[in-house]
Amino acid sequence: MDESDAFLVARAIRRDREAFSQLYDRYVDRIYRFIRIRVGNKEDADDLTSVVFFNAWRTIDHFSPKHDGSFLAWLFTLARHVVVDRYRRDREVMSLDAMGIHRADEAMVSPEDDLDSRLTIMALHQALRLLTSEQRDVVLLRFIEGLSARQVGIILGKQEGTVRGMQFRAIEAIRRALHLVREGDTLD
Q1: C-alpha angle with apex 12: 32 to 33, nearest 5 degrees?
Q2: For helices 160-182 and 149-156, what crossing angle results, to 10°?
Q3: pLDDT digits over 102-151, tens only?
Q4: CA–CA separation, 142 vs 148, rounded Å?
Q5: How does the average pLDDT of the chain come out, rounded?
Q6: CB neighbours of 109 closer than 8 A, spacing ≥ 6?
């Protein structure tokens, strides 16, 4: 665990609000992004992100770097549980349509390139919907959040090798789905 995280966590366990506030500032954007991709809308993502950090504050004395690895991995675990609990409660289907991917150079893109880019993003969204929930989590945590296979394993409660296998199968499924879309088939 990062030394500054360890110091802040130790203070937060002693109920130091300022230390927890610094941890919140450090990680809120990453947790929000993970939740937003999973739930698909800003309002729910805002609410669930608040729940994650409320739960983190409430249970921070349960955090153990020996078991959990890093504070960020622990937060992702809490976030994943909050999202799963929401869908169990509401019995809704998860949506990845509101991913909000935008190109930084959008103003300089030709209409043809913009259309091609948007079609690729739509195909990717369709492909992600074909994955299992755990495969989506692996893809999001590994490639969007940049976590290691070990960290993802801690979050999902899986062995590192299992995570790598899930990642491989997810990438293959995405690759096949994108190939079908390029060939003119639909994924639905």
Answers
A1: 5
A2: 100
A3: 444 445 566 666 666 666 667 777 777 788 888 888 988 888 888 888 88
A4: 6
A5: 80
A6: 103, 117
Model confidence over 28-54: pLDDT tens digits?
999 999 998 888 789 999 999 999 999
Contacts of 60 (CB under 8 A, 6+ apart): 9, 12, 13, 20
Cβ neighbours of residue 119 under 8 Å, at least 6 residues apart?
181
DSSP 81-150: HHHHHHHHHH-PPP--TT-----TTGGGS-HHHHHHHHHHHHHHHHHHHHS-HHHHHHHIIIIIS---HH
pTM: 0.65
Q: Are 83 and 38 in contact (CB under 8 A)?
A: yes
CA angle, residues 45, 178, 133, in degrees to nearest 5: 40
User: Phi then psi for 82, rounded to 5 degrees?
Assistant: -65, -45
